[in-house]
Amino acid sequence: MKNLTAVALFVLGLSQSPKALALGTLQVSSLGQTPVASAAIGSDSWIAQSFSVGSLNPAVYTLNAVQLLMNPASGNPAGFSVSIYDNPLSSFTPLNLLGTLTGPNPSAGGVFTYTSSGITLATGTPYFVVVTAGTPVARGAFYNWSAYQGSPTTSGTWTINDFYASSSNGSTWTATTRQDIFQMALYTTPTPEPGTLALAGIGLACWSFRRHRR
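Predicted structure:
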């Protein structure tokens, strides 16, 4: 009975949702870099900071959360939004929306956490953390995403790249390289391969069969 319970818990652990795993594993962070700049964020000012998972890393990951370093907002902006995009065709601008994260209004400034559900990250694909808001910068109310300047932030095969893209509408983008790098941290959980789950299920079935025969 103890062995059967252990196998069942193992299968449950492999299939649990990202929320059950809290923030998961910190893969890379630029939050500790010295801020030297910021960008105004609004409905007419989108910023997409690039990051990547190196092709030497064979794993597939589920994104759990993104943390952003924000400066205090100007005025009273609203509708802050954080999303994940990819673009298999280009490493410099976002194309496909993969999902929108949930989290607090960052008007006060500081480090804020935005959680994800069901967004999968694979190696060799360019990704972007895209930030916008519901109020336009042109009206004088906007959020401020903190940035540093220097080299990309790298941890293992994970990299927060030294380029970003900007847009006035979320459709047409302009890439900027080797200037501001917007500050963030990425938390993930390794996604088990289908074969791993299948083997775990077979193991559970075997233990159940042996117990039934006894």
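Summary: The two ends are 11 Å apart (CA to CA).
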